[in-house]
Amino acid sequence: MGKPDRGFTLVEIMAVMVILAALAAMAVPRVMASSDMARRNADMATARQIKSALDRYQVENGVYPKLDTDMRASNGAVTAAGFIPKYISKLDASTTQQIGGTLSPGFEVANLPSDWNSYTPQHVIAIFLKADGSAGEVRAYDTSGALLWTSAE
């Protein structure tokens, strides 16, 4: 009488490995896509918060921050002495969530264009102001440069 076989055969182990690989092949892209969507949604929420802060500034001061005198951006970070941190805590590259792609993380501050077709974004979130403080808009882009959200709507 022989000793009973214990354990799994090589075929059984290979079958389990194939099933696990198939499940992973289906699950990983979904997890990655939901992570990317969450990052885009976070940047759209940040853009909305910035627009809300700009509007509060305008209500309290009678004008929006003025381009270059009250607010400017460098390397994706915004400096605005009368705006940060009173109306919003900080605006730098670590505030934006999206990674990769052709746009840089962070913010840019630009003159409000009269023709949006001629504008090419450089950063994930763009703040548009008029030099005289009469208008302020915010736009969020995905990392490929496609518009995700605009306060102009």
Can you characterise this structure?
The chain has 153 residues and is α+β, with helices and mostly antiparallel strands. The chain has one domain. Helices cover 34% and strands 20% of the residues. It is built from one helix and six strands; from the N terminus they run αββββββ. The strands form two sheets. It has a four-stranded mixed sheet, covered by helices on one side. Strands 1-2 form a two-stranded antiparallel sheet. The longest helix has 52 residues. The N and C termini lie far apart (83 Å). The relative contact order is 0.15. The model has no long low-confidence stretch (mean pLDDT 90).
Give the structure's gist in a few sentences:
This protein has 153 residues and is α+β, with helices and mostly antiparallel strands. The chain contains 1 helix and 6 strands; from the N terminus they run H-E-E-E-E-E-E. The protein has one domain (10-150).
Task: Outline the secondary-structure elements.
Elements (H helix, E strand, L loop, with lengths): L9 H52 L10 E3 L2 E3 L24 E8 L11 E7 L6 E6 L5 E4 L3
Parallel strand pairs: 3-4
Antiparallel strand pairs: 1-2, 4-5, 5-6
Q: Reading side by side through the largest sheet, how are the strands ordered? A: 3-4-5-6
Strand content: 15-25%
Oligomerization category of the chains in this entry: single chain
- What general outline do the C-alpha atoms trace? elongated
Q: How far is the first residue's CA from the last residue's CA? A: 83 Å
**Helix/strand/pairing category:** alpha+beta
**SS elements, strand count:** 6
Major β-sheet annotation: 4 strands, mixed
- SS field, number of helical segments: 1
H/E element order:
HEEEEEE
Helix content: 25-40%
The overall pLDDT average reads: 90
Number of separate domains = 1
Rg calculated over all Cα atoms:
24 Å
